Amino acid sequence: MHSLAQEIQGFSKRNLKKQCTRVTTVTGRRLLERRTDGEEGEEQVEELEEGASQDAAHDIDTLQRYKVSHVLNVAYGVTNLFPDQFVYKTLQILDLPDTDITSYLGECSCFIDDAQEQDGAVLVHCNAGVSRSSSIVIGYLMLKEGLSFDDAYSQVKLARPSIRPNPGFYQQLQSYKP
């Protein structure tokens, strides 16, 4: 059985597709976020029409290609599209600095561990794959692999350079003592 740290190290961003991500702000404003190759920031445009792809969690071909068996959905308001094909765990976590991200780490870690005990592969996703999902994976590496915040953050950043936990999550994880 491979550890999550080994799987992250073996990941290649070249296998990812460009995505548009639908974002609903706290005020209800709806935007589309687009990210281009090598770009740190993102372009945000008002959403004018429905039908933008959410992310890899809605791409059955990608999920099957990577032999994903379990999906940890930590987005708010994102539907699980394939409930008959994958084991889902959904936690509607708000991407707000005052949300206590560490309070979710135990439940998320149990789900990931259960999947790994079944030789499964887990996709952890949120809306954009930038803040919530990366924070959960960083926290998991700290809790289960015994990594320091800096080491866990660096490992996740290496696999997905666009990560950017919100300032509250970042501070909470820096202070987190599993």
TrEMBL record:
- Which UniProt keywords are given for this protein, alphabetically ordered? Hydrolase, Protein phosphatase
The entry's cellular-component GO terms read: cytoplasm
Q: Does the keyword Secreted apply?
A: no
Cite a single GO MF annotation. Answer: JUN kinase phosphatase activity
The record, for SUPFAM superfamilies, names: (Phosphotyrosine protein) phosphatases II (SSF52799)
Q: Which residues form the Tyrosine specific protein phosphatases domain?
A: 102-171
Domain called Tyrosine-protein phosphatase: residue spans:
39-178
Quick check: keyword Hydrolase in the entry?
A: yes
Q: What span is annotated as the signal peptide, if there is one? A: none
Which InterPro entries does the UniProt record give? Dual-sp_phosphatase_cat-dom (IPR000340), Prot-tyrosine_phosphatase-like (IPR029021), Tyr_Pase_AS (IPR016130), Tyr_Pase_dom (IPR000387), TYR_PHOSPHATASE_DUAL_dom (IPR020422)
Q: What is this protein called?
A: Dual specificity protein phosphatase 19
Q: Which organism is it from?
A: Collichthys lucidus
